[in-house]
């Protein structure tokens, strides 16, 4: 997900200066739960590889490594302290613990899909790891889904900017990917919230 507080020009300057380290650290921190524009950094890395400034396979390798490491950090933070923190946030916004427990159960039932596919969804890429930890997803299962999702996501992003970036302006490419991620987020939120709302309405009518 792209953030206006970090311009594309700034990200390009950082990538030019630090190369593979910028790709690795940007994605690691984003997947650990820090809202940095890791997706944009990955696209910029692939674009620079397409222009010959970086090596495609090194960009891809560092992107995968950063995504795996970052999500692992997020998972353990969520597993150790995530639930008490979530309850505190819930009290702040007057969300009942029962509702949070219901959302937690919903995520647990779909944790594997969320970890694997969540990388293509705005915000979920940042919070999938911590949420998996909060939901107590078995670590071996998380690790498998995390690695598979990281490899798939990084391959798509790096390859997209490597090839398409040669014929489409980078700004347009980043904007298009961000819009896709936001649409995916809206669909996911609807998929989670609507059933809960419907069940709650049905219960009130009884």
Automatic annotation (TrEMBL):
Major site of localization recorded for this protein: membrane
Membrane topology: Multi-pass membrane protein
GO annotations of cellular component type: plasma membrane
VTT domain location: 36-160
Keyword vocabulary terms for this entry: Cell membrane, Membrane, Transmembrane, Transmembrane helix
Record-annotated membrane-spanning stretches: 56-77, 114-135, 147-168, 180-198
Cell compartment(s), UniProt: Cell membrane
A Pfam family hit: VTT_dom
Family the entry assigns: Belongs to the DedA family.
Protein name: VTT domain-containing protein
Species, as recorded: Lyngbya aestuarii BL J
């Amino acid at each position: 997900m792209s953030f206006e507080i970090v311009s594309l020009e700034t990200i390009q300057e950082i990538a030019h200066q630090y190369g593979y380290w910028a790709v690795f650290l940007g994605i690691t921190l984003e997947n650990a739960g820090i809202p940095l524009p890791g997706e944009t950094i990955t696209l910029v890395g692939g674009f620079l590889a397409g222009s010959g400034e970086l090596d495609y396979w090194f960009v891809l390798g560092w992107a995968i490594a950063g995504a795996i490491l970052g999500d692992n950090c997020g998972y353990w933070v969520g597993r150790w302290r995530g639930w008490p923190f979530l309850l505190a946030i819930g009290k702040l916004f007057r969300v009942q613990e029962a509702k949070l427990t219901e959302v937690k159960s919903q995520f647990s039932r779909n944790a594997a899909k969320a970890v694997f596919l969540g990388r293509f969804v705005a915000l979920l890429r940042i919070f999938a790891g911590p949420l998996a930890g909060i939901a107590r997803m078995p670590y071996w299962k998380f690790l498998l889904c995390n690695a598979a999702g990281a490899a798939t996501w990084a391959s798509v992003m790096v390859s997209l900017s490597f090839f398409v970036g040669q014929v489409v302006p980078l700004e347009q490419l980043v904007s298009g990917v961000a819009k896709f991620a936001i649409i995916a987020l809206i669909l996911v939120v609807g998929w989670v919230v609507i059933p809960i709302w419907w069940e709650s309405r049905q219960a009130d009518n009884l």
